[in-house]
Amino acid sequence: MEISIFKRAIHWSRNLAAVATLAVMSTTAQAQTVTIGTTAQGSLGSALGAALAKVMDEAGMNMRAVPMGGPEVTMPLLNSGEIQFSLASADVSSLAASGTALFEGNAHPNIAMVGHLVSFEAGWFVRADSDIMSIADLAGKRVSWGITQQKILELWGRAQLAAADLGEDDIVPVHATAAPAAVQDFMAGRSDAVIFTIGSGLTSQADAAVGGIRFLALPDRPDLLEVTTSIVPGTVIRTVKPHERRPGIIAPSLMMGSNLVLLASTDTPDDVVAAVTQAIHANRAALIAIHPAFKRMNVDKMAGSVTNLPLHEGALGYYTGNSVATD
User: Fold this and answer.
1) Most C-beta atoms within 10 A of its C-beta, which of 92, 109, 168, 261?
2) Residues 278 and 177 in one domain
3) For residue range 75-127, what is the model confidence (pLDDT) as tens digits?
4) How far apart (Å, rounded) are the C-alpha atoms in residues 257 and 94?
5) What is the pLDDT of residues 157-177, one digit of tens each?
6) Per the domain annotation, does 327 fall within a domain?
């Protein structure tokens, strides 16, 4: 009997130790202030980052969402651990991790996946009353180009021009430092077309400023996906339908798309990443209430794989412990 009591005492002490450890981890995660770097102000990534920060604050974690520009800015900061989280598209995240395309020779091995958030699409848009009716009509036109802080936009632009058998030599480049400046050029009449995310704040701003915009659909050709992914691997083609939150989509249109994913530095502690993963996974309704784009988030597929990117150990631990499928 004494042995039995002794064994129970050991069992209880182990349980208490485990509970204490979890409490310490939770307290540590909540006490820290962490930064999530997002794309430029007015972008979908910026809006979703602000929504994440609000939900994290309500969950007891101090998170700051900081618009920093494109992945050329955020990826190095994430890789070095200067910021703890970042939002980016799945395709550009894979390129950064592997050191290819716009990250050629500059791999970022210290970034890891936390989870898939929402799908998005982006394309060229023009004024609604423009005589530019197709991507092929951009030949000879003034086109936003060489956006230095968001070179991925140029890469997407190249892919979509290629789908219409056009290249950089066929357009008149209008250079800008970042997407907001490129959209400002468009609104001021300094460019005829600009590429950006459908349904973002900047496209809504442009729509209101010029009396309406119109997105240019990709041409329906049998090798369309092959052409676009040869320039931007990991992207997809989707049919986007008109919606009140998608100004410029006036008919079902073929558009390039990807997913926005949440990334973490491998230096970000496991307990912090686990706490963030849990808050997102458990609070879809709260996120939707802040931004309706989260209606496109499937919490059962948050742990989907991205080429070249491992799951962060903190996220993996949460998914495994809560029976969320990983692949």
Assistant:
1) 92
2) no
3) 999 999 999 999 999 999 999 999 998 899 999 999 999 999 999 999 999 99
4) 15
5) 999 999 999 999 999 999 998
6) no
Domain identity same for 160 and 200? yes
Extract the runs of DSSP E, i.e. beta strands, from the chain.
33-38, 62-67, 85-89, 111-127, 142-145, 172-175, 194-197, 213-215, 236-240, 253-265
Examine the domain organization and report whether 95 and 216 are in the same domain. no
**Residue 311 DSSP symbol:** B
Q: Cα-atom radius of gyration of the chain, to the nearest Å?
A: 22
> Residues 165, 171: contact at Cβ < 8 Å?
no
Task: Show the domain range for 298.
Answer: 2-119+260-321
The 8-class DSSP code of residue 177 comes to S
Last residue of a domain, one of 258, 283, 303: 258
Q: Give the total number of structural domains in the chain.
A: 2
Same domain, 33 and 90: yes
Give the CB-side neighbour count of residue 220, counting CA atoms within 13 A.
Answer: 5
Largest CA distance in the chain: 91
DSSP symbols for 227-269? HHHTTSTT-EEEEE---TTSTT--S-EEEEEEEEEEEEETTS-
